Each structure stands twice: as C-alpha cells, then as structure tokens.
C-alpha cells in the first residue's frame, strides 16, 4: 500500500512521517506552495482577539516576525493543530475550535468578545469569517497575508506512480487541493480509472469536486483533523491487506 500525500510542505512531510509510523509507505506530491503577501498589518491595540483558520497564516506572519506584537492577544484557532502551532510561536491564550469554520464561528460567538477580531487570512478563502460573525454583532478585520499557488503539473514521480498503478490511495485535505488534483490528473488518471482510485478526504466539501470529476471511490474522515485522516488511512490500508 502506497499513498499519495497532496498537502503543501512542510505538512506533506509531517503526514508522510505519521504514515510511516503506521507502516504505510507514502509519496509526497504537494499541489500548492505558500507565497507570503506584502501586508499592512493593524496595531493590536483595540482588537479583542485574533482568529486563525490556517497554520499557513501563522507561518506567513512568523516568517517576518510580524506575529510578535500580537502575542498577548486571545487567539481563536480553527482546530487543535493550528492552536498547537500558535502555542509553539509563543501565544499563550489559545482556544481551539473543532476543525471547521462553523465551529470556529460558534466558539468566537460564545466568547462574547467586546471588540473587533483581527483575521490574517489567505488571499483565496474557502469561507467568509467576517460574514459569518456579522449576525453575532462582531466586526472582523481581514488582512490577506499569504496565498497558495497551484503547481503547473503533478510532480514527475507522482505522475509516473499514478500511471503505473502504484498508488493505492490519494490523501486530500482541502477543496482547492482536490480541484487542483482533478485539473492536473489528466493522462495520469484517465476517466476510466477515476472510478477505482480511492480518495481519502478530510471532509465533504473536499470530496465535492472529486465526485464532479468522476472520482467516485471517496472515503471521508470522521472528523476534520489529521488524527482522523490517519485513522482513515490505517483502516483503509488494513482493509486492503486483509489484516
């Protein structure tokens, strides 16, 4: 069993290491790379909290040490992995949600903040945090600090492995990565083979573009987290091996 990991680096290598610990061989094929954006960041004064929907936002800030003025702020993170990254960077007041934008909105709303929320975000956002929090009377100041740039083609080793039928499953963590994979798959996964290639997905919204492009063998993690993806990968590998 060899799996294809489509996450950007450094997350792709982290996932490969976790799969290796489960005795699952994996090949990294990052479909996107992070590019930091020039941004005029606001002063932390006057904000009630910092909202994070991605570890990449933290990395974009940390690359230029722009996170340091915000270290004393309360942080609301979309999930436990992002919360962990925030703590590693020195944030101490960190509250994780349960891995989805909806859970983050609920967590922030229940905090009854008295002031606006600063949201360092991606240029291409999968959801609108400001719009979601507006009914709760909260203003969100959104500043794009990074963008994820799609690769022009699959890495050569990944494309070759797909053509030779050496990939037992593909791991996909975001809707955009699924869309990019569908675009780049091309000759590596012709229409006749798309129905049989297993796609292990973080959530339903990740699976949607796959189904539209005739990748019909889709399995979903029980929860939008890396732990749930590893559990799904292990269960799938054991099923295929009969163990």
Automatic annotation (TrEMBL):
Keyword Transmembrane helix: no
EC number(s) reported in the record: 4.2.1.75
InterPro entries membership: 4pyrrol_syn_uPrphyn_synt_sf, 4pyrrol_synth_uPrphyn_synth, UROS/Hem4
Protein's recorded name: Uroporphyrinogen-III synthase
Alphabetized SUPFAM superfamilies for the sequence: HemD-like (SSF69618)
A Pfam family: HEM4
Protein's job: Catalyzes cyclization of the linear tetrapyrrole, hydroxymethylbilane, to the macrocyclic uroporphyrinogen III.
Broadest EC class assigned to this enzyme: lyase
Molecular-function GO term, any one: uroporphyrinogen-III synthase activity
The keyword Lyase is assigned to this record: yes
Domain Tetrapyrrole biosynthesis uroporphyrinogen III synthase: 16-230
Keywords: Lyase, Porphyrin biosynthesis
Pathway membership: Porphyrin-containing compound metabolism; protoporphyrin-IX biosynthesis; coproporphyrinogen-III from 5-aminolevulinate: step 3/4
Positions in coiled-coil regions: none
Domain of life: Bacteria
Catalysed reactions, as listed in the record: hydroxymethylbilane = uroporphyrinogen III + H2O
Gene3D superfamilies to which the protein is assigned, alphabetical: 3.40.50.10090
Organism of this sequence: Devosia honganensis
Family statement: Belongs to the uroporphyrinogen-III synthase family.
